[in-house]
Structures are given as C-alpha cells and as structure tokens.
C-alpha cells in the first residue's frame, strides 16, 4: 500500500507572522508531499527534509563549526577567567584535548569515559600522578554521543547501535568490537545522536529524535524508549518528543526527567526549549503539534489543541539548547542545591543573537510544581554569534564537585564550591 | 613569493590572535613537506585523484586531518599519516594551506556548454549556500573553485555512494545521493574551471 507523507518545506515563520499581523496568509504554499512507501525513502531521506523552513531574514543562520582541534591550554586558561559563576564557586580545566566531548560516565575504578560528536571517538581520562591522561579508546563510531557504565561494562550508543564493552576499565587499550545489545534504531544522522540514562533496574532511557526540523515523524521516532541492555526488550515511555539529548532519573521519585530542544525557524524568541518529566507511561509531549505547552504549530497543529498534551515542567528559553542534565545529589554545594537539576545549555545557532551556552539550575519538587531557575555559570558566548565554548553535559564527581563537558573547546571543566 | 607568504601568515596571526598560528612560515612549510609529495609544491596537486590544498579554508583542512586521524574519514594513505599529527601541527597545516594561492586552471574552458550545465546544477542543488557564491569555501566548508576536475568527480561519487560522509552533519551525503552521473560530470567541469 502506498502512503503519502506530507510536510512543509516552506517558510512557516513568515506565514505565522503575516497571519498574526492581521493579513491574509495568501502566500501559504501547499504542503509538499513525498512518496514514502519504499525503502529508498527511509535509507535516503529527501535532501530538503531537514532544512528549507527559513525566512529571508533568517538566511545565513546555520550551526557554527567549532575549532577542529578544540582550544589550546593557553586559550582555555584565558577562557575560564571569563566565566561568571554564582558566589563561592570556582571553575578550572579538568582535561583538555577531549575533542568534541559529549556525554560523560564514570567507571568503577575512577576512569572518566567521554563520548564525542562527529569525530566518532570515545575517550578514557585517567589520573596519572595528578595529571589527566586523555586516551582515545574507540574510533570511527557513528556519532557516539551517549554512554553509560554499568557492572564493569561500558555502553556506547552510536545512532543505530547500543554497544556493550565488557570489563572496560581493564581493557582500555584493546576494547575490541564490543557486543551490540540493541539495534532497533533508525540510522538517520539528523537528530540520531543519543544520550543514555540508567534507572535502578539497569534499563536505559534513550531518546529518538525526528530526522528533520518539523514534520510528522516516522512511527519509530520522536519518542523516548526504555531499553533493557540484558535482554534487548524495550518500551516506549514518551511520545511527541523532538530532539532530546539529556535526561536523568529523579533520586526522589524514580521518574525520568529530560531536556528537549524545540523546533527551529519559527523566530528568534519562539518556541521555548523545555524541561519535561514523565509521570505516566507513553504520554505525549506535543511535538510536532504543540510547542512549549501553549503554542500550536503554525502548520502541524492539524486541529490538535495544546491541552491534549503534557506541558513542560519549565520552559527554558528559545534556542538555549539544553542538553545533558543531572540531579545534584552531592554534599559540596550549598544546601539548596540538593536534588536540584543542573542543565548544560549548548547555546543557539538558529537565533540572531545567541543565548544559552551556560549552566543553569532548576529548583523543583518531585511533583514538578513551581520550578525556579537561576544561573550557575555563564560566559561561553562572546558577542552576538561567537562561542568560546559550548557546555553539553554534566556529571558529579565523588567530592561533590561537578564536571562539565564542552564539545567546542574540546575540554572538561570542574566546578567546585567552598564556603569562605 | 616568500615575503607575500610571510605577510599573509602575519595577517592571519594578528587576525586570529591564536598562539598556534604564531609559528613561523618556514617551519610550517617544512611540516608541510610530507604533504608536497602527493599534494604538490605550494599545495597545487599535479597528481590524478589527489586534491589541491592551496587556498582551502583553514578550518576545512583542520577538520579533514582530524577526521582522518579519528577514522571518521577513511583513506589508506592519509590515515596513517594523520595518526602521527598533533593538534598543534593540525593548526599549523590548516593555516599554512589557507595562506597559499589557490589553483587556477591556466587552460581555457574546453567545454563551455558543460560548464553551463554545471552552473545550473549548482544552483539547483544549492551548492553556493554553503560553499559561497564564488565557491571559495568558508570555515569548515571546502573551496571547490579551481579544484582538480577528476578529483571533484571522485569526491562527489564518494559522497553519493556513502564511502565518504564528511564526518559530522550529513549535508554532503544527502546532497550527493540523488545526483546523476551527468550532473556530477558537469558540476566538476564547471567548478574546476572557475
């Protein structure tokens, strides 16, 4: 059976804007249709599937490309002096040369494992007499952004494969091919990069982004699954999710909270990126019909109302790009940090003046009511569209300090607190 | 020639303020000697299927070296070489090749009709939106103008078949996949003669 697949590649923001100004949206062009009833479509999506929604004023906005070799030690030394911190906090460089650093995970014996974006590397950082040694332990993987460590094994999620490397810390120099424990995942590069968060049963929460900015997603995407790496069993825990690359299990309730990057090309200030919480299995967070809990999509609302969907716990701001997040369970930071959520904001590209590029804290109860947000660290954005670095993940260290990964500067920072 | 090169590097140093680029040009040229065997003196290749590097944007060359080193881009000659290259050398080489005068085909275009087809294909495929109106490339995006014709054919076929994925984003694999052989031939001819 043939099925038609509709989506717009035209200027949605312009249409919304014109309509909002009281003019007739006469310029609205018909939805473009694609023939999706064949394998070809799914192995090679149309090349205009991901881009093409921009207005004339938005032309030229594109994801910036960072320095290929990260920041040098001298550049990092000057960078951290520019970071503004909440009172009493201190930032230092933990490790440099960790190119394209993404999610971090601790091994049992103190190895810090770090994934990467397009480079395909996984790193192991070990302490050699007070100096950090960064070793590339896996190469050539497909965007291995997400990783986790459980029962001696390193797990790496590389777009379409969840790979397990047994006894990893004893084999840093020869991890081998690993074993694929789950692969029911499409191979699209677009929003195909992932994040891993384990719950108490050792199942992983894994986000599946749609392979475009906005459209009706294939049924296997725009969702969060919970996957058992032992058996390969999986369940869908959330639907209607756009690009999520961060989440953590609430130590108070066991519920999964996650960050979500909202659609692009609507405007500089719309819609907001989100912090969400799953309260019941399979609930729908609104994408592509409704954004930020209250804004129907100009084209893809398709008759749906925002009230049909689970609203976010908190709107974090437009194009701030919240990625890795952790509940703060340490004892080093001030008491009101306990069980608050720390979020690494990667920062904008689809906005004329970048925002995000910082670490924020959200104080919120386990019920998700009355969230309050403030800034722990900022200063990675320079000028309107410049980056010194881009924070993308957070992990706690044993002493209660936190480590922050930065895929632009290719560095890991430590942020610590001491009462004076 | 030497003083012109020095001047360019000095400007790059001042503009970027990066410590890495403060390396002296003679040392950069010496580091690049290992490249000259295949990529030609002054970064202009005389060898079939080997690209010219002269005038490539600094970041583009750096990314390719980093991709070769990490194995995201595969090539049996380049990978072993790139594995030996430090971050510092990657920066020096990127700045060095960016400072060289880009190649320009000395011969007149022997097939203007084909170039016309290529120009049309370039518009249809929106090449200039990343590579720039003059196809000089920018930042992480390659210079195409004046590149060796048969190398452009090879690169487009490599993208089309998925042999090369360009590291991060999937832009080139997606763009090249639907290209016909005729379009590839025309695009390569057009770009090589710019």
Describe the protein in words.
The complex is a heterodimer of chains A (420) and B (194). With 420 residues, chain A is mostly beta strands. Chain A has a domain at 72-96 and 320-420. Helix content of chain A is 5%, strand content 36%. Chain A contains three helices and 32 strands. Chain A has helices spanning 12-20, 39-43, 73-81; strands at residues 4-7, 32-35, 84-85, 89-96, 101-106, 112-116, 122-128, 131-138, 146-150, 153-158, 161-165, 179-182, 197-198, 204-208, 223-227, 234-239, 247-249, 256-260, 272-277, 283-284, 290-291, 295-296, 314-318, 322-327, 341-345, 358-363, 372-378, 381-382, 386-387, 391-396, 402-406, 411-417. Chain A has a five-stranded antiparallel beta sheet, with no helix packed on it. In chain A, strands 13-14-15-16-20 form a five-stranded mixed beta sheet, with no helix packed on it. A four-stranded antiparallel beta sheet of chain A has the order 4-32-31-30. The radius of gyration of chain A is 21 Å and the shape is globular. Chain B is an all-alpha fold and 194 residues long. Chain B folds into two domains: 2-99, Cytochrome c-like domain (Cytochrome Bc1 Complex, Chain D, domain 2, Orthogonal Bundle), CATH 1.10.760; 112-192, Cytochrome c-like domain (Cytochrome Bc1 Complex, Chain D, domain 2, Orthogonal Bundle). Chain B is 56% helix and 0% strand. Chain B is built from eleven helices and no strands. In chain B, α2 (25-31) crosses α6, α7 (112-124) crosses α11 and α9 runs antiparallel to α11 (181-192). The model of chain B is unreliable at 1-22 (pLDDT under 50). Classes of the chains: A mainly beta (420), B mainly alpha (194).
């Amino acid at each position: 059976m043939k099925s038609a697949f509709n989506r717009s590649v035209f200027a949605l923001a312009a249409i919304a804007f014109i309509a909002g100004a009281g003019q007739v949206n006469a310029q609205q062009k018909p939805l473009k249709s694609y023939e999706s009833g064949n394998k070809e479509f799914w192995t090679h999506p149309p090349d205009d599937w991901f881009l093409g929604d921009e207005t004339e004023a938005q032309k030229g906005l594109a994801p910036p490309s960072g320095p290929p070799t990260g920041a040098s030690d001298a550049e990092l030394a000057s960078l951290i002096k520019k970071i503004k911190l909440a009172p009493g906090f201190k930032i230092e460089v933990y490790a440099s040369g960790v190119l394209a650093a993404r999610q971090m995970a601790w091994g049992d014996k103190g190895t810090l494992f770090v994934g990467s974006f397009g480079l395909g590397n996984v790193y192991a950082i070990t302490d050699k007499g007070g100096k950090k040694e960064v070793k590339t332990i896996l190469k050539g993987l497909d965007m291995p952004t997400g990783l986790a460590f459980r029962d001696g094994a390193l797990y790496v999620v590389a777009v379409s494969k969840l790979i397990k490397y047994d006894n990893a810390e004893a084999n840093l120099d020869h991890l081998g091919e690993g074993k694929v424990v789950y692969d029911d995942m499409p191979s699209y590069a677009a929003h195909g990069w992932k994040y891993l968060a384990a719950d108490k049963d050792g199942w992983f929460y894994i986000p599946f982004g749609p392979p475009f900015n906005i459209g009706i997603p294939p049924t296997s995407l725009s969702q969060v699954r919970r996957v058992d790496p032992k058996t390969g069993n999986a369940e869908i825990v959330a639907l209607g999710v756009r690009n999520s690359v961060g989440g953590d299990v609430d130590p108070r309730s066991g519920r999964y909270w996650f960050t979500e990057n909202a659609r692009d090309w609507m405007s500089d200030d719309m819609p907001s990126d989100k912090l969400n919480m799953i309260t019941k299995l399979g609930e729908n967070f609104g994408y592509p019909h409704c954004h930020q809990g209250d804004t129907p999509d100009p084209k893809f609302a398709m008759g749906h109302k925002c009230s049909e969907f689970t609203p976010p716990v908190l709107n974090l701001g437009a194009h701030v790009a919240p990625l890795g997040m952790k509940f703060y369970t340490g004892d080093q930071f001030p008491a009101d940090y306990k069980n608050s959520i720390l979020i690494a904001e990667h920062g904008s590209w689809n906005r004329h003046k970048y925002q995000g590029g910082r670490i924020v804290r959200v104080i919120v109860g386990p019920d998700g009511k009355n969230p309050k947000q403030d800034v722990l660290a900022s200063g990675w954005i320079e000028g309107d569209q410049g980056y010194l670095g881009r924070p993308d993940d957070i992990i706690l260290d044993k002493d209660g300090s936190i480590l922050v990964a930065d895929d632009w500067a290719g560095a890991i920072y430590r942020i610590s607190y001491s009462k004076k | 020639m030497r003083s012109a090169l020095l001047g360019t590097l000095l400007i790059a140093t001042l503009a970027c303020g990066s410590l890495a680029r403060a390396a002296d040009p003679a040392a950069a040229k010496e580091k690049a000697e290992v490249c000259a065997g295949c990529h030609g003196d002054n970064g202009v290749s005389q060898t079939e299927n080997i690209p010219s590097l002269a005038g490539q944007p600094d970041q583009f060359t750096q990314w390719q070296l980093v991709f070769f080193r990490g194995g995201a881009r595969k090539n049996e000659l380049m990978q072993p070489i790139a594995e030996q290259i430090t971050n510092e050398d990657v920066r020096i080489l990127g700045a060095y090749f960016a400072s060289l005068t880009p190649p320009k085909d000395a011969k007149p275009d022997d097939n203007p009709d084909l170039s016309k087809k290529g120009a049309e294909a370039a518009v249809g495929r929106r090449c200039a939106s990343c590579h720039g109106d003059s196809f000089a490339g920018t930042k992480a995006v390659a210079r195409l103008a004046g590149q060796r014709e048969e190398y452009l054919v090879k690169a487009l076929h490599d993208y089309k078949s998925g042999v090369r994925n360009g590291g991060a984003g999937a832009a080139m694999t997606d763009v090249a996949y639907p290209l016909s052989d005729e379009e590839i031939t025309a695009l390569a001819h057009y770009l090589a003669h710019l």
